[in-house]
Design brief:
Helix content: 25-40%
Oligomer: single chain
Order of helices and strands: EHHHHHEHEEEEHEHEEH
Bound molecules: adenosine-5-diphosphoribose
Number of helices: 9
Strand order of the largest sheet: 3-2-1-7-8-9
Largest sheet: 6 strands, parallel
């Protein structure tokens, strides 16, 4: 296996599935129990902010309890042992399992469950406590303008300048546990491939943008990713 220097890892809900967290589109998925238009659009938040706050406050309690699984820990090993490589994680997940596993260079393009943003002044707070329409912004002291720092459908993704640079520079693009149906994240693989990266997909099944992947590694990421990381690390050891 060739030596890679700039690795971009895109993760989705599937990497957190073996930590016991529901994905979005599986049979028992989050979007089967709540309608997107009721909890994940800016219109829903304007219509009924308290209901949206309660959804994310409940989700926050569940995500806070979750522990990283071998897939998250494999990424830490890769970042620590795959020498002389720039390894970034662009995650669609709002849980903090990458951070709990010790991953660094993590970019939450859909936001983070433990953050809230003030719609009056833009200040971001980090908290696992409940946030609601009574919450006062510690920066501008305005009450009731805090929103979960989750990117709602129809809103811009976060860190897109950084992501664009990473996609242009990467020579290896790993997609782990995402169905590849929500844009623009679903198009990241096309951009990486266009710029010459090798593209590998880790999933239980073939996904809708499988055409752009050079390799499909089927199975639970908690098993396939540690094995792949072993292969990557051994390939540089034998090359030395
Ligand atoms: N290992 C690998 N892949 C898995 C595993 C596992 N253990 N379990 C599930 N998967 C795969 C599923 O096959 C599916 O392709 O993970 C993917 C999960 O897909 P979704 O539920 O659609 O989640 P995701 O792709 O992260 O959704 C993207 O949609 O609703 C928005 O903002 C939300 O960030 C989310 C975005």
């Amino acid at each position: 296996m060739e030596k890679f220097n700039n690795i971009l890892i895109l993760t989705g809900a599937g990497i957190s599935a073996e930590s016991g967290l529901a994905t979005f589109r599986a049979a028992n998925g989050l979007w089967n129990n709540h309608k997107v238009e009721d909890v994940a659009t800016i219109e829903a938040f304007q219509r009924n902010p308290q209901y949206v706050h309660e959804f994310y406050n409940d989700l926050k309690k569940e995500l806070q309890k979750a522990k990283p699984n071998p897939a998250h820990l494999a990424i830490t090993r890769l970042q620590n042992e795959y020498k002389d490589a720039n390894i970034n994680i662009v995650t669609q997940n709002v849980d903090t399992l990458h951070e709990k596993a010790g991953n660094h260079n993590v970019w939450h393009v859909h936001g983070q469950i433990n953050q809230a943003v003030c719609l009056n002044c833009g200040h971001i707070i980090e908290t696992f406590a409940d946030v609601d329409t009574e919450t006062i912004c510690p920066n501008c002291q305005v009450q009731g303008m805090m929103k979960p720092n989750i990117v709602f459908f129809g809103e811009n993704l976060l860190y897109m300048d950084k992501v664009d640079n990473l996609l242009r520079d990467c020579d290896l693009f790993l997609s782990i546990g995402t169905s590849g149906v929500v844009f623009p994240a679903a198009a990241f693989v096309q951009t990486a491939k266009y710029h010459g990266a090798k593209t590998f997909e880790f999933n239980l099944e073939m996904t809708s943008n499988n055409y752009y992947f050079d390799r499909h590694i089927f199975g639970p990421a908690g098993t396939t990713l540690p094995a792949f990381v072993d292969e990557m690390i051994n390939s540089i050891k034998t090359a030395d």
